[in-house]
Design brief:
This protein is an alpha/beta fold and 280 residues long. It has 2 domains: 5-134, no CATH class; 155-267. Helix content is 28%, strand content 10%. Strands 2-1-3-4-5 form a 5-stranded mixed beta sheet. The radius of gyration is 19 Å and the shape is globular.
Length: 280
């Protein structure tokens, strides 16, 4: 990041203190250090005196946007990396949250986060939507290209690859909890009637879970890497999601999370849409 992290943190604290003291928001969702571990974690600040707890470092890798769904009907401030603002934009496009209920503190000139390979493929380094921006914006575009792990693989090779990857899944659902797209009131894996997928840790149920989850994400996933960051087994889940992202961009000229007025890919239909499938 071209900006100094301590300066960014200081400005976030000043902004948070002002918003809370003036009653413009009821809470600030941001990052801070855990009371016992000292590790960077999401925190929820409701008192202006606690605004000094807000921080921003290269360790702020969790997506905060999903927490907004827990506070509908009240004004909430949120510290948002560029990827968080893209997630918020998807929520706005799908009318899951209201713009007037969110105060977005956007972080400019993001150079990526520690140990997140998705950041190397990201071309959006400034907020796409914000009420206030912190840090100097990056003036030039980032020339980033998505490396598609499935490109050049045959159907048989893909099947064999993902059989091996998903065999390591322990069904902890950390990927689901970390992903902002997974915002259903009831996930299909928790449904008893009908039961879409079993609860066993086996090839068939694991494969079904991951394939069904990722198809819900087509045209909505922003390739943020939160799922892989959360996975304790290091499963290459982005091999599927970034493939869908690339196909949506190349075939339909669509990138999610850039315009809150633009409906997500499968929320619209045109007679001249390409018939190419995402897994072709």
């Amino acid at each position: 990041m071209g900006n100094n992290y301590s300066e960014i943190s200081k400005k976030i604290q000043e902004t948070g203190r002002k918003l809370l003291s003036e009653g413009k928001v009821e809470r600030i969702i941001g990052f801070g250090r855990g009371e016992f571990t000292g590790q960077i974690t999401p925190i929820f600040v409701t008192e202006s005196e606690r605004a000094e707890e807000l921080l921003f470092t290269p360790e702020c890798d969790m997506m905060l946007a999903k927490y907004l769904l827990d506070y509908k009907g009240s004004k909430t401030g949120i510290v948002a990396k560029p990827c968080d603002t893209r997630a918020i934009t998807v929520y706005l496009a799908e009318e899951l949250i209201k713009r007037e209920e969110v105060y977005i503190i956007g972080i400019n000139d993001c150079e990526g986060l520690e140990e997140n390979d998705a950041c190397d493929e990201c071309g959006v380094r400034n907020p796409v939507v914000a009420d206030e921006e912190i840090g100097k914006p990056r003036s030039e575009d980032v020339d980033a290209e998505i490396e598609d792990d499935l490109e050049g693989m045959s159907s048989e090779e893909r099947f064999e690859y993902f059989q091996k990857e998903f065999a390591r899944c322990i069904r902890c659902y950390a990927c689901r909890e970390a992903c902002f797209v997974c915002a259903c009131d009831e996930c299909f894996v928790d449904s008893n009637q009908p039961q879409w997928v079993g609860n066993s840790i086996g090839k068939r149920d694991n494969f079904t879970f991951h394939l069904m989850r990722v198809m819900h994400m087509a045209g909505r996933c922003i390739n943020c890497g939160a799922c892989e960051q959360a996975c304790p087994e290091g499963i290459n889940m982005r091999a599927l999601t970034k493939h869908l992202y690339r196909v949506a961009k190349e075939v339909y000229q669509f990138e999610p999370g850039l315009d809150p007025e633009e409906k997500t890919l499968f929320a619209t239909y045109k007679l001249n849409d390409s018939e190419q499938g995402f897994l072709d």
